[in-house]
Hints:
Layout: E1 2-7, H1 11-20, E2 28-34, H2 37-46, E3 51-54, H3 63-73, E4 78-83, H4 88-96, E5 101-104, H5 105-110, H6 113-140, H7 151-167, H8 174-180, H9 185-196, H10 200-218, H11 223-229, H12 235-246, H13 250-256
Parallel strand pairs: 1-2, 1-3, 3-4, 4-5
Helix pairs in contact: 2-3, 10-11, 10-13
Amino acid sequence: MIKVMVVDDDHLVRKGFIAMMPWREHNLEVVGEAGNGKKALEFLENNQVDLLITDLAMPVMSGIDLMRCVKERYRDISMVVLTFHQDFELIQEALRLGALDYMTKVELEHEQMDEILRRIVEKMQEQHVRTRETKVENHLFAEEDEGPYSPEVKASIWKAVDIIHQEFQNELLLPDIAKRVNMSRSYFSRCFRDIAGKTFNDFIREVRVNHAKDLLSQTGKTIGWIATQAGYPNEKYFGKVFRELTGMLPGEFRKSQR
Length: 258
């Protein structure tokens, strides 16, 4: 389920919005709500959120200021603006800060709720694909035209990288992944190293540790829980790998982010 947080200073509007939207039909679940940006940030410190829907004009901390903080601290959270004012300057500022979309009172009155949520989920999916492809392309295709491998081989390595990003929480063995992309073990190993710029095992470790770094920065969960989420059931081994890649233990890294 996609975890949603709704932020609006009008209590009745916030409750009504949460109640009327068909969240579950679009694999969405409201896990939190707040009346201003400050309260929202307090919630985000200890809870995982995938989609933030926020009003713009709020006391204590505005929606714009909240979005600036979220963009800086929680890179993986998608943002959507919920506004009952046609203030296009504020809306444009929100879009510049990375808002996927915005909803106005007119939309809520005249558009189907299903259509609004469908549109948002589609944009989230597109955003995640672009983010993943950008990260991978930095490794894979910097020298695509000059590389010695065929487009078919590169496509197989791309597929393997995508499998790693999708399944890094599970046990991933080189022979199994090579088989899934229809390559021999030895040839896959060599191609992966040459194209991705890292060995298969080093690439997996980097993906897992990067995910752990995000969780350490964005949640208050225990190190053991984060280790499991990053694909390391053994907390001690996770700490060893994390220190090898970052120079710090997980707890030290968390403190450095605050």
